[in-house]
Amino acid sequence: MSAAAFAVVMMLTCTPGGVDDPGYSVPSTTIVQLQAEGSLTPDQSAPTPPPTPTGSAPQSTVTPSPQPPAADGDIVVSGRRRSPGDPLAAINEQSYAATQAVDRAVIGPVARSFEHTVPKPVRDGLRNFFINLHEPIVFVNYLLQLKPGKAAETAGRFVINSTVGVAGLVDFAKRRPINLPRRKNSFADTLGYYGVGPGPFLFLPLIGPTTLRDLLGGGVDRMMMPLYLGAPFNKPVFNVGTGGVHMLDRRAEFDDQLNQLRAARNPYIATRSYYLWRRQAEIDGLHGRKIAPFDPDPDKPIMSAAKAAPATPTVEPGTASPVK
After folding, report:
1. Fewest CB atoms within 10 A around its CB: which of 26, 137, 260, 307?
2. Following CA atoms 314, 64, 278, 175 in sequence, which dihedral angle do they give, to the nearest 10 degrees?
3. b vs e for 95-104, b when ≥16 Cβ sit within 10 Å of the residue's Cβ?
4. Which helix (H) or strand (E) holds 209?
5. Domain range spanning residue 148?
6. Is residue 187 one of the residues assigned to a domain?
7. Would you say the C-alpha torsion 187, 190, 195, 198 has a positive or negative sign?
8. What's the confidence (pLDDT) of residue 101?
9. What angle is formed at CA 185 by the lines to CA 268 and CA 168, rounded to 5 degrees?
10. What is the secondary structure of 126-144 as a DSSP string?
């Protein structure tokens, strides 16, 4: 797939795919579950409360960011702490807004039309085909991570699906009695595995949510594919056609997730937080670590210590006891 086509796919999917390895700690939390648990709050605009008469008790209202009442003549300044991982937040938010506008007007409707027009078996076959093309990259990165067992299984998947699976259109390797699960891996994962931090968060017009580490690692992935696939995969015309089909399939697959993120109180922060959480979860999965809980808003509004105290005890990650 060409770099441009891959970039459009990433523009429309806010998270990379999970690592589907049963023995590999994978975040199974979905946006729907997060909303059900109250971690990701839909946008519920509260009406402006009427003026409080003199001497009467102030009315209680629920607002996304409670602030202490201001006396007459006082100026209350509120704001959000800057996320240390998002130094270009102002530019990123503008890029996010522009990307979503294009998606709502053009890409989203076309992708949904593709989903309704093309039969599901055909779409599944195309998806398997593109997954199979990526297997050699998964194989190389497992070797770099010193995981020869996983590398051997990935090589086996590629051989079986490329032959018996008709060039990867059918995923025979995952079926019984073979039972070779599909796993995802990349050079960005390898960098994270060896301790390279994500770097600044970026929301790029043609790539979407990413980080400096993921951007560089993804570039290595894209440079490798034409080298080991050869013709016709190294031809621009072929890549534009296949990349467009892959883009529409990926966009249709993540339509519900995108809509749920857009319904968050702050869609940009929810998208950024979910992307960074999922990427860290995938790195932790490579190490077999426990997955940290999802925090949709790590850079919460600036508040005084009294106001910032939680109303209910919070549970420390990895424990069953609330923190007092």
Report:
1. 307
2. 90
3. bbeebbeebe
4. strand 208-211
5. 3-17+84-301+312-323
6. yes
7. positive
8. 94
9. 110
10. HHHHHHHHHHHHHHHHHHH
